[in-house]
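worker-03 picked up job from queue 'complexes'. Input manifest follows; two sequence lines, order preserved.
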Amino acid sequence: MKVAIVVQRYGPAINGGAELHARYVAEHLARHGEVEVLTTCATDYVTWRNELTPGVETINGVQVRRFKVKHERDPLVFSKRSARVFQHRHSLGDELDWLDAEGPTSTALIDYVAKHAANYDYCVFFSYRYYHAYYGARGAGGRAVLVPTAERDASIGLSIFQPLFRSVRAIMYNSPEERAMIHAVSGNEQVPGVVVGIGSDVPNNPQPARFRQKHKIRGPFAVYVGRIDQNKGCAELFEYFRAYLADPAGKLSLILVGNSILPVPDHPRIRHLGFLDDADKFDAMAAADVLIMPSYYESLSMVALEAWALGRPVLANGKCDVLKGQCLRSNAGLYYETLGEFIGTLEAIEQNRWLAGTLGRNGRQFFREQYDWPVIERKYLEMFERLKKEPTARTADPLPGWFDRRRQNLPPAEEVLAALPKGPVGRRA
Amino acid sequence: MPDFNVRSDSVNVEAIMEQIRERIREKRGVDYTEQQIRDLAAVKLEKFLDPKGVRSDLLDQFRKAQPAYEPPELPNFAFEDATLFESHRAPIRWLRKLLLPLLKLLFNPNPLIQALHIQSRLNTMNAEREARREASRRALDQLYYELIHNMVIETTRLGIEVKNLKMRLESVSSRLEFNERRARALESVVVYKAPEREEREERPAPRPQQSHRQSQQPSLSHGSPSRPAPVPMPSAAPPPPAPAPVPAAAATAPPEADASAQGAQAEGPGQRSRRRRRRRGRRGGASATAIMGAPGTAADASQPADASTPLDAADRDDEGGDEGTEFEPAKPAPIESLQRRPAELPPATEPVERVAESAGVIHPPSPPAEAPAAESTHEPPAGSDPDAQ
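worker-03 finished. Artifact:
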């Protein structure tokens, strides 16, 4: 079996969610067959600047083939086009222009996929919303398998992606909420799909004491791991945590792990440790009383899964359907939607050791059953086996003609998004 | 292949969240979501408040005060390229058209035409702009009026709330004052007991009726074993009218009580008033005895039935305006316990005072000024106190 993993960026130093997801999947599938990664020379997802050398290299035993990006992203143009397609009535041509502005516009990668798709059994495309996935999946035809990593943002409402969801051979979803959303927006129930998610290489013996000693941390604390960004809900987290600190009964401190693009509040019980390597990160999670996930938009929170793998409870933002659904399905985390709930849930985890311990144990069990690597690998392999047996019936619709592309008949993407069903999917999903 | 299974029966996150929300609701009242808060903020004030009670026509008054807008009749003209050469006479128009090239040889009328045309357009634009400005100003005025209107309503609502709170505060403070007075009265009764014993010992030959009543004191002061068995009496029954309690008490009270009642009836009015004066001179001993529920009195007869009545119940009764009817038996246990002490201790007033002081109340040995007031406020039922007859 030969599989191509097509992803926008790739490398050991690239820690974006979808990119890390792709790397883990590539490295684990490489144990069962031949895997080649097709990606760009970019490392920055904002500019898509070519920073790596094009050509072939091997990373962790996986062959990686890089292609240059034709042009960098112009933030101003991208912003204008985003406003156009998200908020106004627009045409298909506008959406294609938006996709071109978003990037990474690597025509060389697309050409390669179109020419050499027959050399692979399957081409697994990551992140539906990028240029490479849209045009690459069209080029790969019946070999295209999509890992959408879709979040509940406006781009899911763009019309160009609906045929994409319907035309790929299979879709590997990250969560039942993601699957329900894509079904609702594109009506692709007939496309084979399975909720897979992703595993994590969590160490068997993390050293929480070492972390506390190294960073001179005493007392109980909650940890946030990830980019400290407003889009990740960190501003709300800071506001809520300061309110929690106002009550002297609260004993938890907040430890922040990750690069910050948002000012961290100056408070003796809020500490920012910056970016940590994996060992330190896992030690921090193991030492923490609870992991907080304040993000509004997640297709799958790897950090939450890692915390569960380490037996730690999670406090998630209940406005994120995926996180809330994970908490409900796993019985391993609480969630909040208001300040009162944030404080109440945090206090419940802090003060009730039995509850915290039980949530952590449930999380560990949930991770083992659903997100351990053998489970993930098995789901991928079973899907490939299934596709082998099924005939290739679906082909991508050709793009409309020049006049049709300019017909202003598409609704704003935000309207489409607002009409989609909300809420976590039930436990029996 | 099922994607997810439900595990762990020991913890149900949904149930825990519900409990946490319930606790939040108990702690802080309704916990609104952000969306609910936005919705509430967007709703107009009139939905919550009834402006009729304030001045419902305030907005109309504002609107009436503002005169109707009439756009001014600004002079204007229309000026086109052919205006200069127009005429209602066709031949003249034709002649002017014919000679136009000749005119243009002499001077160029186009700048003049253009200037006047522009001026005409400017006039029109100015008029339109003025009309728009006026319209927007009036719309803004409407908003201001509504704002003022809403503020008036809100201020009124706040005023009413403040008034309500003041009334509640007054009510609570009056209740507090009343309770304090009552507590002082009860404490003064405790202080009184020992001097009465002393006085009784000092007096060799008391009146027959008085000696009879005092002869009941030891049985009372030595505790309940000598007391008659409690007779259950329906506490919900309305208090009997003033003359009625005597036979009722006689029916339930021991023979001593009956004799006491008969003795009291045998007294003349002069005797009663003299005795009352004497007792008041000794700081209200009669009501103290009644409050103590001395056997042989009608009050004592009703005591067992109400002995379990908590003080709150007495408070409630007091609030209900039936003051004094349930006052006597209220909270008898502490009184008894304090009352027993003088008998157990040497017959000096000091220990009793110390007991009262240890209870947090410091009072002079003489009766406090509030005591009669308390008695008058919570006068026992007429039938329960022989002195009252």
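worker-03 released lock.
The mean pLDDT of chain A is 91.
Residues 208-370 of chain A form a domain with the Rossmann fold fold (CATH 3.40.50.2000).
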